[in-house]
Automatic annotation (TrEMBL), chain A:
Any one of the GO BP annotations: ATP synthesis coupled electron transport
The protein's name: NADH/Ubiquinone/plastoquinone
Native organism: Natrinema pallidum DSM 3751
Biased composition (Low complexity): 454-463
Cellular component annotations (GO), alphabetically ordered: plasma membrane
Residues that span the membrane, as ranges: 6-29, 36-57, 77-99, 111-128, 164-185, 205-223, 244-266, 278-298, 305-326, 332-357, 378-394, 414-433, 498-519
Protein's membrane topology: Multi-pass membrane protein
Alphabetical keyword list: Cell membrane, Membrane, Transmembrane, Transmembrane helix, Ubiquinone
Pfam families linked to this entry: Proton_antipo_M
Domain NADH:quinone oxidoreductase/Mrp antiporter transmembrane: 129-428
From TrEMBL, chain B:
UniProt subcellular location: Cell membrane
Record-level Gene Ontology MF annotations: oxidoreductase activity
Protein source organism: Natrinema pallidum DSM 3751
Domain of life the protein comes from: Archaea
Name assigned to this protein: Monovalent cation/H+ antiporter subunit D
Lineage start: Archaea, Methanobacteriati, Methanobacteriota, Stenosarchaea group, Halobacteria
Keyword set, alphabetical order: Cell membrane, Membrane, Oxidoreductase, Transmembrane, Transmembrane helix
Transmembrane stretches, start-end: 6-24, 36-63, 83-106, 171-193, 222-241, 261-280, 300-320, 332-354, 400-419, 439-464, 576-595
Region described as Disordered: 493-570
Keyword Cell membrane assigned: yes
Amino acid sequence: MSSVDLLLPLLIAVPILAATLPIALGLWLDRTGWTVATLTTSALFIGATALASIVYTRGADVTHTLGGYSREFGIELVADQFSMLIVLLVTAVATGVLAYTRRGGPRGNTFYTAYLLLTAGLLGISLTGDVFNLFVFLEITSLATYALVASGDGPEAAVASLKYLILGTIAASMYLIGVAFVFMATGTLNMLELADAIPAAESQTLIHTGVAFIVVGFAVKVAQWPLHTWQPSAYQQAPDGVTPLIAALVSTASAYAFGRLIVTVFGVEYLTAMPNAAAVVLTIGCVSVLAGTILAVIQTEVKRMLAYSSVSQFGLVIAAYGVVIAGRSETAFIGAAIHLVGHGLVKAGLFLGVALVARSYDARTVDEYAGLAKSRPIAAGAIAVLLLSLVGVPPGVGFVGKWYIALGAVQSELWPVAAVIFLSTMLTLAYAARLLEKMYFTPSATAERPHAPAPVATDGGDAGPDDSAAEPARDEPGAAIAAIRGDRSEAPVSTGMVAIVVLAALGAVALGFAGGTIAELLDPFLTEVIN
Amino acid sequence: MVADIRPLAAVLVSAVAIVLIVASHRRPNLREGWSVVAALAKFGIIVSMLPAVMDGTVFAWSLRESTGIQFLSGIDFALRADPLGIFFALLASFLWIFTSFYAIGYMRGLDEHSQTRFFASFAASLSAAVGIAFAANLVTIFVFYELLSLVTYPLVAHNEDSEARIAGRKYITYTFFGGGVFLLAGTAMIYWLTSLVRSGPTLAFEAGGMDALAAAAQAEPVYAQAAFFLLIAGFGVKAALMPLHSWLADAMVAPTPVSGLLHAVAVVKSGAFGIARVILEVYGPGLIHDLPLDVPGIGTVGLNIPVAIVAAFTLTAASIIAMRKDHLKRRLAYSTTAQLSYIVLGLSMLHPYAMVGALFHIPAHAFAKLTLFFCAGSIHVETHTDYISEMAGIGKRMPLTMTAFTVGAAGMAGLPPVAGFVSKFYMLLGAGSMGGEYWLFAAALLLSAVLNVAYFWPVVYTAFFESEDRHDAKPLLEFPRGGLVESYADRSDADVAADGGQPTDGEADRSDPERADADEDGTDEYAVDEYPSDAEVPGGEQVSSVDHHGDFDDHLTGGPPADGWPRRSPSTETTWLMLAPIAVIATGAVVLGVGPDYAVFLDLARQIVGGVFGLPFEELTAVPFDRLVTEVST
């Protein structure tokens, strides 16, 4: 048994140590980074799977106290049913994205150092049982992300990274101030100790203040409207190979941490009794759902559109937390957990698909996706499945998360929230269908391309240039695509890249059938924290 | 309940066919072969369950029992072949066989693009439709309902031009609003309501209504009413209840086999079918009748009354709109809107007779309307004519097609001996037995029959009894109400004299506003292909197509050739691939009308209604209605 809990520190320490290897080995060898990262993340995935099987079959938490100090003084790592979902997602996505970066870049050993540090930070967030330690891992994650975003091309990436750095640091400070207030009131930092100490604390005002700071801090980290502004530019400017990782995991881990604080540290019962707590969280979530979608619909860049979509999808998760607080609803919490995992997987797949398209055709705007279904049927199919999962078409995973969240809202009789959640299907459809329609039902290379191919020039500006330019394009899209996209068409898209997008799509559908299973897996955890 | 894999097999057989269709996209004959094989296999599987189901067996398949996977906590993903399910599945799969032949003839006749996507989506639609038929609970039906919206979208947007894309957008917006918002919200509310009572949360259909829901409705009547209307609205979108109907007419840009099987049978009937499930097996007539709605100023009415009013309004209004549609497929679409409301109206009258009539109207309308659409499509493929005003004398050119059209039109109007008469008769009996304000609904039914004649007779009349150079404007229909002094004959005669024998030229600038629109829309096509019919029809050859799929765009290309319609015999009017399905389906409509007792559908309908009220249908007639609902609800 003692050997099992060693897995916990290993899951965090191994990627941190491995992060030094690409640089160290880089002294002698070029391009070791990918190999090191692949070996490390694969090992992490195997370790996480082993740990998960123990946690879920045994039905009890696996804990490890660092250095043998008891949890009142030391730092504790905890793997329970909730955190293992996120650990599995993190390790799986971190491994999967490497299938793209092998050929798609960014290359270089330092990139993989940051990559592994980011993974370590995310695993730390998921596994820690200590609120200050959580801050440390949030910072490790953020610093690695700043570096990764800044490695994108051009000055815009640097600006995006700087914006993220400023807002991210403010958010982390907010969280730290909140923790400080809570520490003043209770004298402990361990999550389980806090759970006992908070309701008993004498100075409730300090704790209320702490909660307020923590909520704002996480609203920034999770990118909730109107504090989301760092997120679209960070997602857009980050290198294509990095965006899937960041989009799928960074905000997800923060949202997980927020959920952890709600159910484990403060406790649902305590927050229910706290005035306005539920209303604030619900409002943040619902407003973000609506605002994020509206902003997503008006975007022309696909990556930005998906970034704003994340604002609205995390809005659903935060709204679900609000329902958990307001109605003490287990169902909504299951929904939040499933939506975190499902959204992470779907967004990773979508951004990988976007990266693939950008790499093959340099197509980045919605209009440039016209006719994609004909030129890349498999990738387009996978993107379509992922988009539909995001919309919540059953049996995709998006439906499962939404069902539990909506059911939780209905059971708690929070009708406006339920209405927002049901309407979110339509709102998501508004931008997803735009992309689908472009890919499948808009012939490529029609009049909306300003630099249409040669025929206009050859027939000397006669009355019919419009017709003659449009007609051949409609009849043989292949030729027109080749004319426009020709210069980049030799850029190789590896089988691995296509395979990983397809795998994500299949995963999104497979998880759609796992709604009952995940609920069962979470059941012991929920009975502990909510009842 | 007998555990059996066949309900699943019936759903999956066409899903498997999708893979085969896509895989053989380079070999059209093989690809279409898979469609036919899948259609036959699906029908075979469903028929193999029919005798046992008619004896009272219910075949069930559940994901949890067969694989151990729980779909959602507390909710199983389950299929069940009960009488109501097999009723709809049998109809859809039977008609798919003939539609797949017809689709081959149609798509090849027009040399359509993206045929692989078309046939794959078509097979997927049938999978989803049978899934809806066999769904055993509200979540399962929701899953298939959403999938049906999804897989029919490529069929609506098939043309890939801006008109098709706009229609597609409208289609997917309406259907997802119905499914993803209303239906899902209603389902979640039912789950919550039933979790309030001791018998636990459930979503499974039960003949006569869910007991748990009946108990919960006593505690939370307002929420139970809200959930009822959410569910009805959710299914009502696909059943084209006003004001949620306007997607249907726009969806007519789809190729005609789609308009025929999906937008007259499988898709729209899945909405009507869903309403049947909600009324018969979620709430049950007893609960609907006993959960009164307090309307200020009127007093309390049953939950069914608002639904019946909407349906009665829809069927009247849609019939009136249909009269003024010159585009044949659009006229048929509004007729579909009206006829679907017959079904909803019959169901919402709650009387056993009305219910049997409503259920029997599902196949009765399906056979007749499919005939009409097939005829419209075959006219389009052969002559590129879509507008009724251009069909004068077309009876010479397509004698059998127009005869079948007449049969279908008679069915719509409910004239004996076509099937529509039987269903309408039962509904009138039901309305009469209920008495009171239900007489209004009976009046709406009768009025609608008259209107049906009013909008279908001109088509038949102009086809058989008018000729290309001598036909009049139909005063009620095409011109401002009351008619104009001028008529087609005057105008076209003058034009022919003036410009030397190109009657279509004269038709291009007629004064009807809809035509003016059509001209504007159609200018692009006009430049490409001005008079394809003039160019090729006189030789007797089939018109080769540019890209005409049956809406405003190709208005200018239709109509009779310069020297009038050539006279054809039934054997040469079109290909047997289209003619044979037309003949079979039209015959089916008559068989259903002449011998409903020998065709299986009426028996099934009686069995379903008997199951709902818990008595054999023959004994139901002896029990007064009030006792019927109160005894059932207890």
